[in-house]
Amino acid sequence: MATFPEYIAQNEERDGVRFSWNVWPSSRLEATRMVVPVAALFTPLKERPDLPPIQYEPVLCSRATCRAVLNPLCQVDYRAKLWACNFCYQRNQFPPSYAGISEVNQPAELLPQFSTIEYVVQRGPQMPLVFLYVVDTCMEDEDLQALKESLQMSLSLLPPTALVGLITFGRMVQVHELGCEGISKSYVFRGTKDLNAKQLQEMLGLTKPSATQGRGPQTAQQPLSNRFLQPVQKIDMNLTDLLGELQRDPWPVTQGKRPLRSLGVAMSIAVGLLECTFPNTGARIMTFIGGPATQGPGMVVGDELKTPIRSWHDIEKDNAKFMKKATKHYESLANRASTNGHIIDIYACALDQTGLLEMKCCANYTGGYMVMADSFNTSLFKQTFQRVFTKDVQGSFKMAFAATLEVKTSREIKVSGAIGPCVSLNAKGPCVSENEIGTGGTCQWKICGLDPSTTLALYFEVVNQHNAPIPQGGRGAIQFVTQYQHSSGQRRIRVTTTARNWADAQTQIQSIAASFDQEAAAILMARLAVYRAETEEGPDVLRWLDRQLIRLVRGPGLKPGSGLRGSETDFMFHLRRSPFLQVFNNSPDESSYYRHQFNRQDLTQALIMIQPVLYAYSFNGPPEPVLLDSSSILPDRILLMDTFFQILIYHGETVAQWRKAGYQDMPEYENFKHLLQAPVDDAQELLHTRFPMPRYIDTEHGGSQVRAQRNTNNIHIDLRTDTLTCIFSLIYVLMFCQYIHFR
Ligand SMILES: *[C@@H]1O[C@H](CO)[C@@H](O)[C@H](O)[C@H]1NC(C)=O
Ligand SMILES: *[C@@H]1O[C@H](CO)[C@@H](O)[C@H](O)[C@H]1NC(C)=O
Ligand SMILES: *[C@@H]1O[C@H](CO)[C@@H](O)[C@H](O)[C@H]1NC(C)=O
Ligand SMILES: [Zn+2]
């Protein structure tokens, strides 16, 4: 019998699921006393290289309100060729193709090791992938040059049949026609007036697929394309040239003014173009911006440089003139894009804010990426962007498109809602709880863009009444059904079926307490707190979190003393002071950015964000984790700190002196050379795997002045002061700023 930690690890490995509780309290009343609800972190596309997809389609329960997928938990009568649904107890006939099954000849979906299984949908057309580049041209030559090179590089990473398009914008918006023979022709739009889909369709001469193809589904042989979206293989040379020739926006910018940047209309045209041509087909709108929108719908600041972009202070004073209107504009675009299954990515590279606060829902509702860097000529941007196109061993992109997630539950439990990069599909049904948490009132969500680390938090409600005991040995079951467009163009369905034991909290409290997954619970509560921070006033969220903390410390409805251990409450205190909840000293854009990342990353990454990890390297043995505390700083140590957003190496006083004296270059001090190298190697490994790429900071004790030097790869900071707290405050002033409380 595995211990709970082993059990939790195995389940995460196999199913991509971590529950807050792994034994569930068997009545609603007991469950509500537990503070932390029954909830799960679910990673729909968790990498499973050992799981080849099977080439047939799932067998569904015949009950119209259920439609659960046949799974290893179903009772099967091999003689009568019947199976009983473990969700609604309906008895179902196997389809004719299962005539040959028996105890010794079971289909894969009945084997316990296939609690997660992936099916390839055989019907329907192969979908093309569509990539639409939306490029700001109001930027310095250095940035534009670097961006152009990155875009050209990305073309070489796209599959030859992928369709690409290009929209550029400055004061005007240009939609580039890619089909014309040798002439670069574009349609020019004013940046001050929004266009609806119908107007755009007329102006660009687009035809709806249904109009050209008649009724009925699109045919596979005839991938739809138009002059604006062409297969890479046909136009990559010409598009490479076109990108190479892109110039800075030619409209003059007078002294003291910002360039006029029509971002809102450019994004609207991008959304409209795909809406008219490829509804419900996987597509990425990749937006590259070098500054804030300064005119037209979606503008977030005026063009007078002397009027700065809104701050938290302005927002609190209700003095952020453009915020509400801009947010509404981007929200409506985000809703349209998600309805059509299209992703919107935002790459914002500028020293000042660009309006991520207003635009965040574009990325969030559509599963898009949000990347924030100082410049396009940084490895943070370049490598992050390149990593978007990472491929698996079969040569397919790791990104997946136009997904839906459906949750099915057994009778004693219902789903309250989801928090993550998704939108509701408003699917009512017997599994839906009346008590909403996050995006609730539905058992289906749309996730336009998914990758192997995209993780949703799902909250459940035990509905079994106190006086309705669950039979001994009864198990509660949850099925996750994720349908998505694989980057090969196939539709696939991944099904994960999980079950957990019920226990009576009166008599079996120990087994419930032992099943508590503290890490999962902390992240699930943190997502809830961040959700509240997004939707409610700051102080209320902190008060709410404090109340939860007190209840957690006392023990979540369990016996006294069975509450979280010290380290986990520390963790909640870290969260309380983290940038995800605190907004002072982070700009509104930064808060939006951190929260966006926190809301989509998997458990391991999310833990690092809330509680940075610190490793010490010394001659006294292998690297070891140490406390995030100034006592960890010693002269003969090197520290490696990982905050998810930054990787920092700090050399203690003695180590710094030795390094300055060049001991690492002397053959007799080879072990010192290795000591210096070890954290660098470990940092490189983190830099290579993380998305988005973190900032790399190399610092040391001493130095005559504090200076921060930006260069392409990293930031060098020499510190005057000698405590670790100081490094932390520097980092936190840069981005985290833990030390100031809200109000
Ligand atoms: C980008 O930065 C690097 C390093 O600072 C510099 O050498 C290069 O010239 C820059 N690129 C452009 C296009 O200016
Ligand atoms: C690409 O450019 C070349 C040279 O300008 C031209 O001859 C060719 O027709 C163009 N191809 C397409 C598909 O536009
Ligand atoms: C993103 O949207 C989802 C669903 O609408 C929501 O649960 C989540 O809190 C939002 N996150 C952020 C950071 O805005
Ligand atoms: Zn059923």
Explain the overall architecture:
- This protein is an alpha+beta fold and 743 residues long.
- The protein folds into four domains: 4-56 and 114-121 and 397-516, Sandwich (Immunoglobulin-like); 146-210 and 220-387, von Willebrand factor, type A domain (Rossmann fold); 517-611, Sec23/Sec24 helical domain (Four Helix Bundle (Hemerythrin (Met), subunit A)); 612-737, Severin.
- The protein contains 20 helices and 29 strands.
- The strands form five sheets. Strands 8, 9, 10, 11, 12, 13, 14 and 15 form an eight-stranded mixed sheet that branches. Strands 2, 7, 16, 18, 19, 21 and 22 form a seven-stranded mixed sheet that branches.
- Helix 7 runs parallel beside helix 9 (323-339), helix 10 packs parallel to helix 16 (588-600) and helix 13 (518-535) packs parallel to helix 15.
- The radius of gyration is 27 Å and the shape is globular.
- Bound molecules: 2-acetamido-2-deoxy-beta-D-glucopyranose (3 copies) and zinc ion.
- The site of one 2-acetamido-2-deoxy-beta-D-glucopyranose has 6 residues, from helix 3.
- Residues 400-503 form the Sec23/Sec24 beta-sandwich domain.
- GO terms for molecular function: GTPase activator activity; zinc ion binding.
- It comes from Lates calcarifer.
